[in-house]
Structures are given as C-alpha cells and as structure tokens.
Amino acid sequence: LYSGHKAVLEVEYFGEVGTGLGPTLEFYTLLSHDMQKASLEMWRMGPTTRSSQASQGDVEMQDVEADNMAWKLRSEPTFRNEEYVQAPYGLFPRPWPPNLDGSIDTKYGKVIEYFRLLGRTMGKALQDGRLLDLPMSTSFYKLILGQDLDLYDIRSFDVELGTTLQEMQNLVRRKQFLESSGGGNKRVFSDLKFRDVKIEDLCLDFTLPGYPDYLLKPGGNNITVFLENLEEYVSLVVDATVKIGIAAQMEAFRSGFNQAFQISSLQIFNEEELDYLLCGRQEMWVPETLVEHIKFDHGYTASSPPIKCLLEIMCELTPELQRAFLCFVTGAPRLPPGGLAALSPKLTIVRKHPTGIIGAPAVLSSNPPGGISAVGTTLADGDLPSVMTCANYLKLPPYSSKEVMQERLLYAISEGQGSFDLS
C-alpha cells in the first residue's frame, strides 16, 4: 500500500505509547521474522529439516568439514524454532514446478504474492534507510543484482546438494573424456561410479531432490537415472534449482521492488555491500571503542562506575544477546553500515533515578538496603532499565553491582521485546 510513496514510512501500534523510529524498526524486524516462517513455503529448508521430509529414494549427502568450506555462515537469527526456516547458509527460494498456475493453485499463488510483498518491503526499507532481519544467501543477492546462477552457486546455500551435483558432473566429464579418447568400452564405463556405487544403484529418478512432487520431465518419477542420462539429470536439477523453478518468484520480487524504485539501480553494489545496506552489520565490542561512540548524560560520564560495568557487560554479550540488546535499545537487531559509530541518533545512556523499591526478584548484592556501594546503590536494585527506541536512549539505574545490573538488564531485554510500554 505504501511502497510506492516517497514519504518516509513510520509505524505506531495501537495500545502502545511508542512512536517514531523505534516502533518502525521493530515493525520491519517482526515482518522479517514472519516472512521466514516455514508454513509460507517460500524458502528452501536447511539440511536437518529437509532430510526429515525427503523421500527414501533421495541420495544421502555427505557432510563437508568446516575447514574446507569456502562459504561463510550467515548471521543466526534471534529465534530457533521449528516454526521458522533454519537456513545456516542463508535463505534461498524454494523451487516450484513451472507448470503451476497461481490462479488455480492457491498455495503457489500465495507464494508468488509473498515474494511480491518481500520485494516491496526490501525496496521501501532501502528507500527509507531501515534495516531488515533477513539472513539472505549470497546467491539470492546475485539474483537481485541480475546475475545468472549455475551449478557452482548451489553450494553457497545448499552444501550437500551442490557437492553431490559437482561430483556427478565430474563423473559425466570423465565419461565424455573416455568417449572422445576412444576408450569408451562397456568395461571401462562399468568402472565409473559415484562414491563407489553405480549410478543406477542410487535408485534416483527424474524428480527434484527433496521435492518429490517436482517432476524434472514428464513421467520423471518413472524414469531411472543411469550413467547414460546422468548429464541430463544434473542439468535439469540445476535448472530447476536456480533458474526455471524460481523464475516466477523472482519476477514477483522484482515487480514488488520496482514499486519503490528501480531494482536495476542496485547493480552498482556487490552482494556483500547489498547485505550491509539491507541488514546492517554486527561487530565485536571492546570498552575503548564503545566509549567513543556512546553519549553519556544526565548524571553519567564515561568514568561513572555504573557505565564501566555496563560497557563490560556489553562486551561480554554473545552474538545472540547482542542482537537482543540492540533490538531492545534501537528496535533493530543489527547496526547500520558503519556500526555503532553510524547509529543515528547516537546511543545515549542516562541515569535513571532509583525508586527505592527493594525486594524485586533480582540478584541483589550483599549491601544493606539503601546502602551505597562502589558502583551504585541498592535502592536501584529493584528497578529495570528502560528505553526510548525512537532516540536510541537507554535509562540505566545505578545498580549496586555488575551482577545485579546484568540480571536486571537481561530481564528487561527478555520481557521488553515486542512492546513499547517501558518509559
């Protein structure tokens, strides 16, 4: 509805007090998560999920050692749930048979519309300078940039399938070499095997691996793969995986994106740069650099004991907790290109006046109630930190110890996700 408007989109939720940048970033984050739900059938499943759904006739793929991997794992999302697609190498469209009609097959028609929505969302997010939480694969970014994919791109999002197809392609080339050199007798061909197994003994047919309803050719479920037709099989699998099987989805994505601005203008970027623009970045934090990029105000300075404790806690966060912290403070789980230094408005931490409520379920220090410690006061130990995400503004009580601060901060992050009630 709003993707074609040039005005900056801002979101406000009914029944919540927050408005402006924070709720808007949270909207894009929540929409990003919803578009990763497995029930939408937009994306290829990860190896673990797919193996539980694959038919018994599929080839059992071998694991590839991480040291030999040339592909970088994508950043993990903050959720781990069977409800969502788990794609460790990034999201890539699930193939659908090209002969389906979206007006008749409602499930396929919905998938096409979801990709159109995805295009609109990405285009508007880029136009407004918003961040998405979509761990896309390198190959998907290549498609966005108008590049063609081939056999060797499959490993970037499905290591097992890509490795197997490359091994089969090498077997085909060996067969072709033997034929061209005049050594192509039946005895020599019988020695050509896939991992010491004859091709026909793999019990493969002309259906797409992992998608038994996708016929690679008419009657493909009744056609066995032999060495003689292996080249055709590999070619059809590649075509279905990165070309014709995802063509309609990508066309819908481009049409949706073009409603915001022309997708062709993105071709000045490479895949990594486009990922930074769309999804921001994560970075390693150390206290020295954090001090340079954070503003301290209203009772706090860089040398205040509570601030020193907070910076230590921030540097000790796991990648998953760092994402949760950023989402709590800014509304987005990743930082914009340029990292914390590029965050606008600048992250500001101010002193929150203690209420004096003692006895809240916190890890309280050994100091007596109301006592003053080297860090802060126990009068603050029952309070929670609060935020103004529209201004990247964290209100931090002067807790009595680092342990109390960490417990209270993590509790607020956990309970404050997805709403704007804290003030």
Short description:
By secondary structure, the protein is mainly alpha-helical.
Entry keywords:
single chain, 423 residues, mainly alpha, four-stranded mixed sheet, 13 helices, 6 strands, elongated
Number of strands: 6
- Coarse morphology: elongated
Main beta-sheet annotation? 4 strands, mixed
The arrangement of helices and strands along the chain is HHHHHHEEHHHHEHHEEEH
Question: Into which percentage range does the β-strand content fall?
Answer: 5-15%
* Residues in helix, %: 25-40%
> Which class do the helix and strand fractions yield?
mainly alpha
| Mean pLDDT metric | 84
Identify the quaternary structure here: single chain
- Uncertain parts: 48-78, 358-373
Order of strands, main sheet, comes to 3-4-6-5
Tell me the span between the first and last alpha carbons.
31 Å
Rg calculated over all Cα atoms: 27 Å
Q: Could you characterize the architecture of this molecule?
A:
The strands form two sheets. A four-stranded mixed beta sheet has the order 3-4-6-5. The protein has helices at 21-34, 47-53, 106-128, 138-144, 159-180, 186-190, 230-242, 247-257, 271-279, 287-293, 305-316, 319-330, 402-416; strands at 207-208, 211-215, 294-297, 347-351, 386-388, 393-396. The chain is mainly alpha-helical. The radius of gyration is 27 Å and the shape is elongated. Mean pLDDT is 84; it is low at 48-78 and 358-373. The chain is 37% helix and 5% strand. The chain is built from 13 helices and six strands.
